[in-house]
Amino acid sequence: MLNKKTMKDIDVKGKRVFVRVDFNVPMADGVITDETRIRAAIPTIEYLVEQGAKVILASHLGRPKGEVKEDMRLTAVGVRLAELMAKPVTKLDESIGQVVEEAVANMQNGDMILLENVRFHAGEEKNDPALAEQFAKLADVYVNDAFGAAHRAHASTEGIAKHIPAVSGFLMQKELDVLGKALSNPERPFTAIIGGAKVKDKIGVIESLLEKVDHLIIGGGLSFTFIKAQGYDIGKSLLEEDKIDLAKSFIEKAKAKGVQLHMPVDAVVANEFSKDAETQIVGVDAIPGDWMGLDIGPKTAANYAEVIKDSKLIIWNGPMGVFEMDKFASGTKTVADAMATTTGYTVIGGGDSAAAVEKFEVADKMDHISTGGGASLELMEGKELPGIVALNDK
Ligand SMILES: Nc1ncnc2c1ncn2[C@@H]1O[C@H](COP(=O)(O)OP(=O)(O)OP(=O)(O)O)[C@@H](O)[C@H]1O
Ligand SMILES: O=C(O)[C@H](O)COP(=O)(O)O
After folding, report:
1. Chain Cα centroid distance, residue 30
2. Nearest of 33, 29, 82, 36 to residue 57 by alpha carbon
3. What average pLDDT is seen over the chain?
4. Where in this protein does the record say Phosphothreonine is found (predicted)?
5. Is 97 marked active-site?
6. How far is the CA of 219 from the centre of ligand 1 (A)?
7. N or C: which end of the chain has fewer CB within 10 A?
8. In sequence order, what are the residues at sequence separation of 6 or more whose Cβ sits closer than 8 angstroms to the Cβ of residue 323?
């Protein structure tokens, strides 16, 4: 997409290569619960090992806010990576300093080191030039393969690229190719599905997609602000009062642009926010005053499935309801199944939608599941991602 150098444009043989990956994987009690992001980085790591590079891997995990947090160490990730690579990975307890420098000095070609969570240093998120320099001095070359963190201008994603030759890895390239092509030269009909909790988080992406898509499907918590904007009562459903006018303006803009805007016609409502709540299915014009909408209804889901079936390209970001609870999972499941069976090209914009297709066991039916939640959203909004901008031009 962008004219940036990749690993293939430079010689990495025998070089010390600092590879920023996004190993920010979900963990529960020290156990990795989803290793997608580790697997996604393997092609880059394998290539570098095969080329005889000295591979120094760096990542963040969680948000430790500049302090050492025992439960945010990358130790378990190192163990899993070694298994997946079927080769030893030396996991260090630091990401800079003497111990790291000595370990790097002792590396043989093809060796792998995994540094400790870079966010244990406050300078990482502050993009502290001194920290970036410390990272840079460990290596001859910088490879950024952390698409999921490309929207962050941090010392290991942006600052370091100012000091040593900086290129993209294979995952970064793939993400940019798929999302970039979809957005710049989409096959039509092009449909975007936007769900999730809040309008606030999706303003930019809705605005940008209205310029590009043929169909825009709205679901999830944010759809209730749109339903309200159409003049219906939404009971105790999620409402962003200050975004009603914005929702109205989106409805108008869609009309003006000839974009077909699809909004819920029915909803699954509950008497409380609980997995054991009482539920009923109602039209959006009949939501009872003290109930809340927690999923799109079956008519809506069937409408959405029909649009997905007839589309050539579909991008999905954000669940249709509270899919974590069985009673409110049906809308998201119907959309996931429609994505799995359409002949169109399907792209999942990371985060909760990726978790949803995993949960409904259709992940392998998707054409592309982005490893970036926030990053893919920002890319779809048309924003420049600092981790990419910082790389060397071709
Ligand atoms: N009708 C609803 N009422 C309340 N919460 C809802 C509703 N529909 C969906 N949600 C919740 O919204 C959450 C997901 O929204 P959120 O905006 O955080 O994620 P997302 O859009 O997938 O973003 P990302 O991809 O960055 O994770 C889910 O946890 C889901 O339970
Ligand atoms: O999980 C993500 O979206 C990335 O790893 C970035 O994490 P962050 O939102 O904590 O910067």
Report:
1. 22
2. 82
3. 96
4. 300
5. no
6. 10
7. C
8. 295, 329, 331, 332, 333, 352, 356, 359
